[in-house]
Amino acid sequence: MLQAPDQVALSVAGTAVLQPQPMERLDITLADGDPPKRLDAALAAAWPEISRARFQRLIRNGQVRLDGEAIRDPSARVAGGANLSVTVPPPEPAEPAAEPIPLNVVFEDDDLIVVDKPAGLVVHPGAGTHSGTLVNALLHHAGDSLSGIGGVARPGIVHRLDKDTSGLIVIAKNDAAHKALSAQFADHGRSGPLERAYKALVWEVPARASGTIDAPLGRDPRSAIRMAIRKGGRRAVTHWRRDRHFTQAGRDVAALVECRLETGRTHQIRVHMASIGNPVMGDPVYASGFKSKAALLDEPARDALEALNRQALHAFLLSFRHPGHDKVMRFESTLPNDMSRLADALDTP
C-alpha cells in the first residue's frame, strides 16, 4: 500500500501494532474473523492514543470511511475484513491565545462582562477554529480573571450564540459568578429573572399575532450540521410575537418577530420558526428553500438581503440576577446595522 509521509497503515489482528505518531491519516484493516463490534470501539481498540469520545466526533464529522464510503454512526457494527480510513486533524492548541480583537463591552465589573457580540464571531475555539474567537478576545481583554469552570478552551463561557447570530452574551469572571449564572440559565427563568429575547426577520408573515412552539429538538440524522424536530429530542419551547410586517408590490413578504426562549437548544429559534413556515431570512441552513423568494423583493431589499450574508437573528434582550449583589441586571441592544438596513429596505410598499 502506497503511503504518504503523514499516513500509516495498520493491520489489526488481535492487538494494535501502531506506534503513537502525530499522523493525519490512519488506514485500518480489521482482522478476518473478528466478531462484529461498534465502529467507535473498534477504532479506539486499534489506536488507544485517541479517545473513544474523539473517535465519535470524528465519525459524526464525516472523517471516517468504511470501505471507501463515509460513515457517520459511531454505533454502526463493523466486522473482520472491514477497511477503515480515519482522517485525524492536527492536534488543537492546548490553550487559546489572547488576541487583540475589538469588543463592544456594554457592562463590566469584578464578576462578569456583558458583550454585544457581532455576527461572524465564534464564541469559543473548537474543531477547525483555533483563533479569532470571542474567547481569544476576552483573554486579551480580561487576562487571567475569567472563570476556569469552562476549561481552557471556554473560560468564563456561560452560554453561547451561533457564529452568525449577533447580540448580548454574558461572561463570568470568577468561578462563583460562573456557578450562579449557569444555575440561572439552567433554570431558564422559571423561578428567577432570567430573560433572553431575540429579534428576527422572517420570510412571509405569520398568520397569527403571536404563538408558542413546543417541539423537541435533536440532531438531524441526515446532516451533521442541522438540528430537527424529533420525537425523543430535548424539550424546546419558543414564544414568538409579530412586531411588524412588510409588504412589497401588494404582497406580504416578511415580518419582524420577537422570540423569547423558555429553553435554550442549539438552533432553537431557527428550527422552530422554519417549522411554522417562517424561516429566518438569510439562514443558509433552514431557509435554503426560500432563496427563490428573493425575486419577489424590490431591488433595494434584495441588495440588503444579499449584503446581510447571515441569518437575520439578534439577541437584543438579556436579563439576569447579578451573582454578586443579587440585583436584577437588564440589557437591551438595538438592531445591528445590517439587519436595520434590511428592515428599512423591506419597509417599502
List keywords for this structure.
single chain; 349 residues; alpha+beta; Structural Genomics Hypothetical 15.5 Kd Protein In mrcA-pckA Intergenic Region, Chain A; Pseudouridine synthase; 3 domains; 9-stranded mixed β-sheet; 7 helices; 19% helix; globular; disordered N terminus
Describe the protein.
The protein is α+β, with helices and mostly antiparallel strands. The protein folds into three domains: 7-87, Structural Genomics Hypothetical 15.5 Kd Protein In mrcA-pckA Intergenic Region, Chain A (Roll), CATH 3.10.290; 92-187, Pseudouridine synthase (2-Layer Sandwich); 189-349, Pseudouridine synthase. It contains seven helices and 18 strands. The protein has helices spanning 39-46, 52-60, 134-142, 175-187, 268-275, 299-308, 337-346, and strands spanning 7-12, 25-30, 37-38, 64-66, 69-70, 77-78, 83-87, 105-108, 112-117, 166-172, 195-203, 210-214, 217-219, 227-229, 237-248, 251-261, 313-321, 328-332. β17 (313-321) and β18 form a beta hairpin. α1 crosses α2 and α6 packs antiparallel against α7 (337-346). The radius of gyration is 24 Å and the shape is globular.
